[in-house]
Write a structure and sequence with these properties.
- The complex is a heterodimer of chains A (383) and B (124).
- With 383 residues, chain A is of the alpha/beta class.
- Chain A has helices at 27-41, 62-70, 86-99, 114-117, 140-154, 158-172, 186-191, 219-222, 255-266, 283-292, 301-304, 323-326, 334-346; strands spanning 9-20, 51-55, 76-78, 106-112, 194-196, 199-200, 209-218, 230-239, 275-277, 317-318, 359-366, 371-378.
- Chain A has two domains: 9-119 and 209-229, Peroxisomal Thiolase, Chain A, domain 1, CATH 3.40.47; 140-204 and 234-382, Thiolase/Chalcone synthase (Peroxisomal Thiolase, Chain A, domain 1), CATH 3.40.47.10.
- Chain A has a ten-stranded mixed beta sheet with strand order 3-2-4-7-1-8-12-11-9-10, sandwiched between helices. A two-stranded antiparallel ribbon of chain A has the order 5-6.
- In chain A, helix 6 packs across helix 10 (283-292).
- Chain B is mainly beta and 124 residues long.
- Helix content of chain B is 8%, strand content 40%.
- Chain B contains one helix and eight strands, in the order αββββββββ.
- The N and C termini of chain B lie far apart (33 Å).
- Classes of the chains: A alpha/beta (383), B mainly beta (124).
């Protein structure tokens, strides 16, 4: 039986920085600023950090670079690269390291200047010899192939994908930090330039700059810190493939397995979840992940999101910051789902606050539906 | 050819006009892309000529910015079981549909042999 240190650790500091455009700043500048803001939020400073977990878009030794930049000598560092879910898997490792006393203050940080530097998604991997000659657009064509399969098997429609994009935009309009806040209608989504059929421009995540950071400590210390602790109740990950041609089933992700495990660790069921922050790189992701996280049956995701069901005031609060589709997507979005979960469980989300939120799911997706990871966070009442 | 990597062997076969895939001789399970060992068991693999027949499993039309024209990218489920990325020629990109029966052919592209597919209109 797998054991997880349920509620043994908590997030005590969280911050974002530079969401949108930060021309002139390097990725590490953005990550360092977010890190310092998150530490300040926790009443700490860089020299308090002895566990450092980092992802930067263009630096395979990013945890060493950020340690140097911040002037710290951490006892444990990692910069794993499983794509956008890296920060979920790093949070799991941070929780284990804190629980075993390997470190006392863990900092998880991310920053990317991809919009200002290149204007497009920055890929951290080399092309695959068995796919690249056919010229798929990476990564959108891989998700488009999954979307085509979902439409074929379950009758999911482009209009249902558009519902996801519009719901994300309506949440973004409640978040002053979100990058894309202009009005957006279903017809505009459907009529937008096609990128890789059936996904058009508004079915694809933003390309922005941005940074985020969270600080974790053991729970007994968390209760003496300035901000309301947000406890990590469970965390699990699973990987099924690297490339879309090798995905076992294009409509079922590894989230099915790791979500069930994370819920078991946390001692919750899907009915206990108040807020869902899932990795919406494309509109198909939201539909598929609502299924795989257990909020509806497989194949029902398209119907589940209809009629504004995941928009503000709907039946389930999904991606309350506006998500990767309308808030921020600097290349690896996973840490932003963690920050938004923390903000919601602190009750600090202002106009987009989900009333009485006590349990949040922060989901990460990496590669092309390849690496999935699920964290369950809870407020004081869930300990 | 014994020291060639699985990928080099695959491309050398294609250059000879042969579309070869691998199989575990014990379980008779086929594997694509070419590897040094059977995924899961770690057992050795042998090369077998593929039938070339398959079904479209998933499909997309890529729309590059004009003036470049759109083109098809598809996942093909080979009759032997494994899937591979490819494209379907001989039909408009948006007319490629899931479940369509297709047959492989080897074309030269960018100086290298490449497996693409075309609708399999029946016959032997």
């Amino acid at each position: 039986m797998e054991s997880f240190p349920r509620a043994a650790t908590a997030v005590v500091g969280a911050a974002t920085f530079g969401i949108g455009e930060m021309p002139g700043m390097d990725s590490i500048d953005l990550a360092a600023q977010a890190a310092i803001l998150a530490l300040r939020d926790a009443g700490l400073r860089p020299t308090d950090v002895d566990g450092l977990f980092v992802g930067l878009p263009d630096d395979a030794m990013s945890s060493l670079s950020l340690a140097e930049y911040l002037g710290i000598h951490p006892a444990i560092t990692d910069n794993n690269r499983v794509g956008g879910s890296s920060f979920q898997t790093l949070a799991i490792m941070a929780a284990l390291a804190l629980d075993k006393g390997i470190c006392n203050v863990a900092l998880i940080a991310y920053g990317s200047n991809q919009r200002s530097a290149t204007g497009k998604l920055v890929s951290a991997s080399k092309p695959f010899a068995y796919e690249a000659p056919y010229r798929p657009i990476s990564p959108v064509s891989s998700y488009a192939l999954a979307a085509s399969r979902h439409m074929h098997e379950f009758g999911t429609t482009r209009r249902q994908f558009a519902e996801v994009a519009v719901a994300a935009r309506l949440w973004a309009q409640l978040n002053p930090e979100a990058f894309a806040r202009a009005d957006l209608t279903i017809d505009e989504v459907l009529g937008a330039r096609m990128v890789s059929d059936p996904l058009g421009v508004h079915d694809c995540c933003l390309v922005t700059d941005g940074a985020a950071a969270v600080v974790m400590v053991r729970s007994e210390r968390a209760r003496q810190m300035p901000r309301k602790p947000v406890y990590l109740l469970g965390g699990a990950a699973n990987t099924t493939h690297r490339w879309i041609s090798c995905m076992p089933e294009l409509t079922v992700s590894a989230t099915v397995e790791c979500a069930a495990r994370a819920y078991r660790q946390a001692g919750i069921t899907v009915a206990d979840v108040d807020v869902v922050e899932l990795y919406d790189a494309f509109t198909i992701n939201t539909i598929m992940m609502l299924e795989d996280l257990g909020f509806c049956a497989k194949g029902e995701g398209g119907r589940f999101v209809e009629g504004g069901a995941i928009a503000p005031g709907g039946r389930l609060a999904v991606n309350t910051n506006g998500g990767g589709l309308s808030c921020v997507h600097p290349g690896m979005y996973g840490l932003f789902t963690i920050v938004e979960s923390v903000v919601q469980l602190r009750g600090a989300a202002d106009r987009r606050q989900v009333p009485g939120a006590e349990v949040a799911v922060a989901h990460g997706n990496g590669g092309v539906l390849s690496s999935q990871a699920v964290l369950v966070f809870g407020s004081e009442s869930t300990r | 050819m014994s020291s060639a990597s699985p990928g080099q062997q695959y491309r050398a076969f294609l250059a000879q006009g042969r579309f070869m895939i691998q199989r575990n001789p014990r379980t008779l399970r086929y594997v694509f892309y070419p590897r040094i060992a059977d995924p899961g068991s770690g057992e050795p693999l042998e090369w077998i000529e593929a039938s070339g027949e398959g079904l479209v499993y998933a499909t997309t039309v890529v729309h590059p910015r004009p003036p470049a024209s759109s083109y098809n990218v598809a996942l093909i489920e080979l009759r032997e079981g494994p899937r591979m990325m490819s494209r379907v020629d001989g039909v408009a990109p948006h007319e490629v549909s899931i479940g369509m029966r297709v047959r492989a052919r080897i074309v030269a592209e960018g100086g290298s042999p490449l497996v693409v597919f075309a609708p399999n209109t029946g016959g032997a």
